[in-house]
Design goal:
Helix content: 55-70%
CATH class of the largest domain: Mainly Alpha
Strand order of the largest sheet: 7-8-6-5-9-10
Number of strands: 10
Number of helices: 23
CATH architecture of the largest domain: Up-down Bundle
Structural class: alpha/beta
Shape: elongated
Radius of gyration: 27 Å
Strand content: 5-15%
Mean pLDDT: 85
Distance between the termini: 41 Å
Number of domains: 2
CATH superfamily of the largest domain: Amino acid/polyamine transporter I
CATH topology of the largest domain: Amino acid/polyamine transporter I
């Protein structure tokens, strides 16, 4: 995924040069890229959304009347127009955090703007982040399974092989993640563009057979369907929501492609293609009620079935790839914001910053996806589990958007409510409809979200408790430096860098070094790494140096919550500020804490043990901060928490 600089007007500036031709080339390249990465998920919804909506309304084996089909088509069209076009494309894409989007970027933006109630904003961010992991597990399972099920339309003999083939494709997809997406991503845009052209062509052909389906643009058909069908209409609404799954990707990938390309791709390519295909499926079902078995693949003549199954499989793999890399990015943001422990992050591209691979996250996602495929075994069964995760995220996004419109955009509370509350009402209605499916599979994303929330809450609470406890026991840095410079111990050449989370107190590693070695380096640096509430930090704000004494200085390195901290690179910037830094004459002292449960803890016993387990599983600080292992001295300490 390419990174660009978002222009104030929402366009994208070229990464190099200023020529108009280059700017246009950059815009078209980013637009094509956004078609592949941003719209892969929502673009594959036609595989199952229309089928599930009609089946929810009439039940399996029953023909759908013209009233039902037009009502469902009307709900689908207006869901795309109101939720995706109005809420995400026109409003939320403007709520960027220094050019970055996504639920955690929105949380950081809202948290920075609000003085009271910041804890509630953090909680909303935790909920949305937790639900996204449910989406990240369901999307690959549902998308690939629905594509491979097209083989049953070619011949029923393929039926026993659908699940095994799906598993093979998914295992292969997750296995290649460590190689990075740079080489594959070049094909994402073109393949997905071909997909949208193919689904548009099929839809147009069938619309031409029955122009009556165009009446579905009238919202009265949707309202009358809901009013006349009571609870069945409400249940159907939960299936209709499947057409907008993937909307969050528009906002999450804002920093990668910019507003202009994302908006242009949606309005000119994706929205027309989806609308035409759904109308075509509706026309087919009216002409042949039995086509509801699989209205998407039955749009095509027999000779085109196998090529479309292959194209659909490629499109769903791309959709899955986008959500997998999204899970990596979300995890990195959560680590930066202090919601999860440090985990190994590998950069898979020297030129593209956003391309990362996280082995543990990849393994856990694969296990979850395979369990889902083997447990549910069909896309229809999985569709019941899908909506809750996405609707929950949308509700939370709308709540945080209200805070941003009110506090950041400086609108009056009434005006902000007038803008956001209608969308929140629509999201809550869809959420209520999807909650009816809890027993049918909706429990899965709720259970997974609950586990992730417990992990995030425990890590945040435990980290704060540990910080407060160690701070009470530590010596003020200024007092220690004054004492050491008044009666200095034996000096040794070189520079010692002591890492600490509290720059006001003497690091534990420094105290233990003095206690056991009884020597002090010629130069000593108390180093703190801070995470800013912005996605990235410029070089001008990266390093802050403050002398504490003749031989001591305090250095604070700041990184954005979407950056991976690299201490040696950041310290190289400090040379320009006058600090003579030689990595080969520097020793980094880290404190490795061994946590034990305290007799009286501020947390319940289960949470205490969970926090200690998370701390033990955290990636080594040396690796996370990318410090050369040969320059590191670790000092062990035991702490009760």
């Amino acid at each position: 995924m390419s990174h660009s600089i978002a222009a104030p007007e929402g366009g994208v500036l070229p990464a190099h040069g200023n020529g108009e031709t280059q700017s246009k080339a950059s815009f078209w390249g980013l637009t094509l890229g956004s078609i592949g990465v941003v719209y892969g998920d929502i673009g594959t919804s036609p595989l199952y959304a229309m089928r599930e909506s009609v089946l929810a309304a009439v039940g399996a084996g029953n023909p759908a009347s013209e009233t039902v089909v037009l009502g469902i088509l009307s709900l689908i069209i207006w869901a795309l127009l109101l939720i995706v076009t109005a809420k995400y494309v026109l409003i939320l894409l403007r709520a960027d955090n220094h050019g970055e989007g996504g639920t955690l970027a929105l949380m950081a933006l809202a948290h920075r703007a609000i003085k009271k109630g910041g804890g509630a904003v953090i909680l909303l961010g935790v909920i949305s982040g937790a639900l996204f992991y449910g989406d990240a597990i369901i999307t690959p399972a549902l998308s690939v399974l629905s594509a491979v099920e097209g083989l049953k339309i070619v011949t029923p003999a393929f039926d026993p092989y659908v699940v095994p083939l799906t598993i093979v494709i998914l295992v292969a997809l997750f296995a290649v993640q460590s190689r990075g997406t740079a080489s594959v991503a070049a094909f994402f845009g073109p393949i997905t563009l071909i997909w949208f052209i193919a689904i548009t062509a099929a839809g147009l052909w069938h619309i031409g057979q029955n122009l009556e389906v165009l009446r579905a643009f009238n919202p009265v058909y949707g309202f009358s369907f809901l009013l006349n069908h009571g609870m069945i209409g409400f249940v159907t609404l939960g299936a209709v929501f499947l057409v907008v799954t993937g909307s969050e990707a528009l906002y999450a990938d804002l920093g990668h492609f910019g507003r202009g390309p994302i908006r242009f791709a949606w309005l000119v390519v994706v929205l027309p293609a989806l609308t035409i295909n759904y109308l075509g499926q509706g026309a087919l079902v009216l002409a042949d009620p039995k086509a509801i078995e699989n209205p998407f693949f039955l749009l095509y003549p027999d000779w085109a079935l196998l090529p479309m199954v292959a194209l659909a499989t490629a499109a769903t793999v791309i959709a899955s790839q986008a959500v997998i890399t999204g899970a990596y990015s979300l995890t990195r943001q959560a680590i930066g914001l202090g919601l999860l422990p440090r985990l190994e992050i590998r950069h898979t591209s020297e030129s593209q910053f956003g391309q990362i691979y996280m082995p543990r996250v990849n393994t856990l996602l694969l296990i979850g996806v395979l369990l889902l495929v083997m447990l549910f075994r069909s896309s229809s069964a999985l569709a019941s589990a899908y909506g809750i995760a996405v609707t929950g995220t949308m509700v939370v996004t709308a709540m945080m958007a209200f805070v941003v419109v009110w506090k950041v955009w400086k609108w009056s509370p009434f005006a902000a409510a007038l803008l956001i509350v209608p969308f929140l009402f629509i999201d809550l209605t869809f959420l209520a409809a999807n909650l009816l499916k809890v027993a049918e599979g909706g429990w899965m994303p709720l259970a997974l979200g609950g586990v992730i929330m417990a992990l995030m809450y425990t890590w945040r609470r435990g980290s704060r408790a540990l910080f407060e406890k160690t701070r009470r026991q530590e010596t003020p840095l200024e007092a220690l430096v004054a004492m050491l410079e008044k009666k200095p111990p034996q000096r040794v050449p070189g520079t010692a860098v002591f890492l600490t989370s509290d720059p006001a107190s003497a690091p534990t590693a420094l105290m233990h070094s003095l206690k056991h070695y009884k020597v002090l380096h010629e130069k000593n640096v108390i180093l703190t790494v801070e995470t800013a509430d912005t996605p990235r930090v410029g070089d001008a704000e990266r390093v802050r140096i403050e002398p504490v004494g003749k031989t001591f200085s305090r250095v604070v390195l700041r990184f954005g919550f979407m950056e991976t901290p690299n201490v040696p690179k950041a310290l190289a910037i400090a040379r320009k500020l006058g600090w003579h830094f030689d990595i080969m004459a520097t020793s980094f002292f880290l404190s490795r804490r061994s946590l034990k449960p305290a007799a009286r803890s501020s947390m319940p016993g289960w949470q205490d043990r969970l926090f200690i387990g998370l701390a033990r599983a955290a990636n080594d600080a040396t690796d996370y901060f990318q410090i050369p292992t040969g320059r590191v001295v670790e000092v062990g300490t035991q702490v009760t928490v």
